[in-house]
Design a protein that fits this description.
heterodimer; A: 109 residues; mainly alpha; Cyclin A, domain 1; 56% helix; globular; B: 111 residues; mainly beta; SH3 type barrels; 2 helices
Chain lengths: 109, 111
């Protein structure tokens, strides 16, 4: 009987880290991107589709990627699947931003 | 949640107290039925409503026909072979109708 990677209820999971941790700007941006893309008037995809993308990770990726890493990968997958952006367009934009960041040093702080 | 205009597949709704068994079928790509409950016998405690099918919504489809979602109660000792808590402990899960089979009286194990 097949078990999806996310379906871990009842399996040994080790101790739970209960301390609070700061939310990073990256995490906030991923969250904002998801809300904007999944809500009207854009409604590019549904939460169920995002969950399917997340749940389609390999066991290794599901374990190793962080929570919001899985979100942003699922958002990318859905944008491609819904033909809103192509993989080539996304990759080209990533390269462009990388180039811009190399040209001007980013102030840390 | 009330039925909507697309709700054409109205099946008989099971009432509270009905014994059911969770299907052991392979999961859909987006599946709301937990693995640890598959094949388990439980009891319906209430109807949560009728909703669009998440396993179809997951492919950005309309999710029709609508499915009845049941709140089903299981005994912890039935679910976990090594459960050493109180024998009356239960676990309640929301399970869609297409994941449940009715248990006839002769199949139902009486305690």
């Amino acid at each position: 009987m097949e078990q999806r990677v996310n379906d871990v209820g009842g399996l040994p999971g080790g101790p739970i880290r209960q301390e609070d941790h700061p939310v990073t700007m990256y995490q906030k941006r991923v969250d904002a991107l998801y809300v904007l893309l999944s809500s009207p008037p854009i409604s590019a995809f549904r939460v169920d589709s995002i969950r399917r993308s997340i749940e389609s990770n390999t066991k290794e990726d599901y374990k190793n990627f962080g929570y919001y890493d899985k979100w942003i990968r699922a958002i990318r997958d859905q944008l491609i699947e819904q033909k809103i952006l192509s993989e080539a367009e996304i990759n080209a934009r990533i390269e462009q931003i990388k180039g811009e960041m190399l040209k001007q040093p980013v102030s840390k702080g | 949640m009330s039925a909507d205009n697309h709700d054409t597949d109205v099946t008989k709704t099971w009432s509270a107290g009905t014994p059911v068994r969770v299907k052991s079928q392979p999961p859909e790509f987006h599946c709301r039925t937990p693995h640890y409950l598959r094949g388990m016998v439980g009891e319906i405690i209430e109807v949560a409503g009728r909703f669009r099918d998440p396993s179809l919504l997951a492919f950005n489809k309309p999710g029709l026909p609508m499915r009845t979602l049941y709140r089903v109660r299981f005994k912890q000792v039935d679910v976990w072979p090594d459960y050493n808590g109180c024998p009356t402990d239960t676990v309640v899960a929301d399970i869609y109708e297409h994941w449940l089979d009715l248990i006839t009286e002769d199949q139902h194990e009486h305690a």
